[in-house]
Specification:
By secondary structure, the chain is of the alpha/beta class. The chain has one domain: Rossmann fold, CATH 3.40.50. The protein is built from ten helices and seven strands. The radius of gyration is 17 Å and the shape is globular.
Length: 244
């Protein structure tokens, strides 16, 4: 558990500024999750879908064009990797959010895209972009049937800033069809909805590498705050289970 005093730390203030969330809104979100009990933050259990519905409804970051998003510097790297796989890559995105990265892919002539998110509000925003070659639906990574055909139907699966939010991240990886190429990102910093974060490249390798062949991971430092790093990892799902 993170005490209320930790929420007031400079690190959390920086994160709030990045998300354009006021401290009052932040506290309301925490109280909602905590059932209006003590103001504390738990990283031991994932947040429910209504937490994300509220975030997608009230956070200006999710209404920006992708070129103005704080994630743009990450998406440019992912776009380059997708296009190197194939200019006509078939893409599945786990946790697509409001469709900003999907719009970037479509604008760069990716013509086969499927994205799902368990937040109905996120999907509403994504569908509102009216992207002709993108398909969005509400879905849960623990149950989504497309994941079991992820290698046969798609050239690459994208999963950005999702695995750190869910309790059973390894179960999600296990649900991917063997042979799936996964491109994913995870952060090095805590946040109200994170159940884990990764301080080093080695910690990312230790958790995920054994599930993949040809596993690689690199760090991308966020311009502000400069202490934030997003780890980009890529690999081919081996047999759907840890190689250990």
């Amino acid at each position: 558990m993170l005490p209320a005093t930790f929420i007031q730390s400079h690190h959390y203030i920086d994160l709030l500024n990045c998300h354009k969330i006021t401290m009052n809104t932040f506290k309301k979100l925490i109280r909602k999750i905590a059932g209006n009990k003590e103001l504390s933050v738990s990283r031991d259990a994932e947040a429910p879908s209504d937490f994300y519905d509220q975030a997608y409804s009230s956070t200006s970051e999710y209404f920006k064009h992708y070129t103005n998003s704080r994630y743009y510097f990450i998406w440019t790297v992912l776009l380059d990797r997708v296009i190197r796989i194939s200019q006509h890559a078939r893409v599945l995105e786990i946790g697509c959010g409001p469709g900003q990265f999907a719009q970037m892919l479509v604008d760069n002539e990716i013509k086969s895209y499927y994205g799902f998110d368990f937040s109905a509000k996120a999907i509403e925003l994504a569908q509102g972009k009216s992207l002709q070659t993108a398909n969005f639906h509400v879905g849960n990574a623990y149950e989504e049937p497309l994941m079991q055909r992820s290698a046969s139907m798609f050239d690459v699966v994208i999963c950005t800033e999702v695995l750190e939010h869910i309790d059973r991240d390894l179960e999600v990886i296990n649900r991917l069809e063997p042979g799936t190429r996964l491109l994913a990102t995870v952060p090095n910093f805590p946040y109200v909805s994170h159940v884990r974060h990764f301080d080093t490249v080695q910690s990312v390798r230790e958790r995920y590498a054994t599930y993949f062949n040809h596993f690689t991971v690199v760090g991308l430092k966020q311009p502000h705050p400069s202490t934030n790093v997003y780890w980009v990892f890529e690999g081919i799902v081996s047999n759907g289970k840890s190689n250990q």
